[in-house]
Amino acid sequence: MIALKVIRVAAWSAIAVAALLLGANALLPDAWKGEPKQSALEKPVIDMAAVGGPFRLTSHKGEVIDNARLAGKPYLAFFGFTHCPDVCPTTLSDLTELMSALGPAAGAFNVLFITVDPERDSQGLLAQYMTSFDERILALRGSRAETDAVVKAFAAYARKVPIEGGEYSMDHTAGVYVMGADGKFASMLDMHEPRETKLQKLRRIIEAKA
Fold first, then answer.
1. Exposed e or buried b for every residue in 164-183, given b needs 16+ CB within 10 A?
2. pLDDT tens digits, residue range 5-48?
3. What sections of 117-194 are H helices per DSSP?
4. Rounded to the nearest 10 degrees, what angle do helices 87-102 and 195-209 cross at?
C-alpha cells in the first residue's frame, strides 16, 4: 500500500507544472514568503487570535464543510494545489504517515487540504488526487471568492505565479495549521521538524480535547 502511494505521488509530481514554491516555510509570519522582500515594519501584523475565522467550502466527497461543522473537534488545515510539484504531495504524505503512527487516536481530529487553485482543482480532480493519501483527509475547494475568504480567515497567503507557456503555478503558505476543538489557533506543524516533535504536537491537541 505504501509503495502504491509513493508511485501515485511520483506520478502526480511528474505531470505537475514545473514551478518552484518560493521560500516555502511553515512558520508565520514567514507565510508571506512569495512577496518582495519587506522590512518588518512593512509586513502585516497577524492577529493569531483571529486565525480560523468563518469559512464555507465543499469537500472532494461533495460535503459542505464550514467552521461551524468542525466545532468541537481539533483539526489540521493545509493550503496547496494538485499541480504542486513537491511541497504539497510531500506534506500530504507526511500527514498520512503521522496519522498512521497515531493509529486510532488520529480519529480524534480532522485533516483538511484546502486548494488555492479552484480554477483547475475540480471536485473530480481532487477526489482522484486524494486516493494517494489517508482516506480521512478531506480536500476542500470553493469559488474564487470563497477561496480568497478562507485564505484571509487563516491569515494565509496565495497568489498565481506566471510561468512559461502561458501556464501558472501557485505560491502559498506551506505550514500546517493546528486548530483546537474550540476552533482557535493552537500552533503550526513545521514539516521539517523531527517526526517525534510533530507527533507530540498532535498528541497535545488530542489530550486537550479529552
1. eeeebbbbbbbbbbbbbbeb
2. 444 444 444 433 333 333 333 334 443 333 333 333 333 445 56
3. 123-129, 144-153
4. 60
pLDDT digits (tens, 9 = 90+) for 93-149: 999 999 999 999 999 999 999 999 999 999 999 999 999 999 999 999 999 999 999
Collapsing DSSP states into helix, strand and coil, what is residue 178?
Answer: strand
158-162 and 64-66: which strand pairing?
unpaired
C-alpha count within 13 angstroms, C-beta hemisphere, residue 173 = 25
Beta carbons within 8 Å of 64's beta carbon, 6+ residues apart: 56, 57, 58
Residues counted in the chain: 210
